[in-house]
Amino acid sequence: MDSVIQPPEARGGDDIGVRLKAVRKMHGLSQRELAKRAGVTNATISLIEQGRVSPSVGSLKKVLDGIPMSLAEFFTLQFDDNPQVFFRADEMPNVGTGPIQYRLLGASNSKRDMSILYEVYPPGQDTGPELLSHEGEEGGIVVAGQLEVTVGAETALLGPGDGYYFSSRRPHRFRNPGDCDCVLVSANSPPSV
């Protein structure tokens, strides 16, 4: 990664570092996870966030590709006390990393207390063979298709209008066993993305 380490008195990348840290946290990523997604070292992310390294445009783009976020979005994202209230479909970034779409509502609000997601599971897709477990609570309502939800030892097949709500500490997994996309709206608190 091409970047320049600067002495404290010459640093001009502090704004980029502060912004990168805010964006990373907004997306619920640790420095380690962002570094892994971007294909850089943890130290690189840490140095940029501390303002000790001023990344080139190409290097910054590589880091932002791990979120994913464009350079334009990165530099125009507003962090103020009057966050955006209404969002068009194209303003909800897909924060998923595979074939399952997780479109995040209010991604530009760095002070979110919850994540609200518009999720699309293609036929046969799931969250993986291992059950997930993390802090907080989550719930969702199926809008279209079918969703098999496993929570602990319980499994249910949900259809349009059906929903779920549970402590996220309970091991869980989601799968679309149907032959068409499963669409649902979900929320979790505290935000995991």
Automatic annotation (TrEMBL):
InterPro entries: Cro/C1-type_HTH (IPR001387), Cupin_2 (IPR013096), Lambda_DNA-bd_dom_sf (IPR010982), RmlC-like_jellyroll (IPR014710), RmlC_Cupin_sf (IPR011051), TransReg_Diox_bact_type (IPR050807). SUPFAM superfamilies: lambda repressor-like DNA-binding domains, RmlC-like cupins. CDD domains: cupin_XRE_C (cd02209), HTH_XRE (cd00093). It comes from the Bacteria. The keyword Mitochondrion does not apply. The keyword DNA-binding applies. Gene3D superfamilies: Jelly Rolls (2.60.120.10), lambda repressor-like DNA-binding domains (1.10.260.40). PANTHER family: HTH-TYPE TRANSCRIPTIONAL REGULATOR, HTH-TYPE TRANSCRIPTIONAL REGULATOR PUUR. This is Cupin domain-containing protein. It comes from Microbulbifer taiwanensis. The lineage of its organism: Bacteria, Pseudomonadati, Pseudomonadota, Gammaproteobacteria, Cellvibrionales.
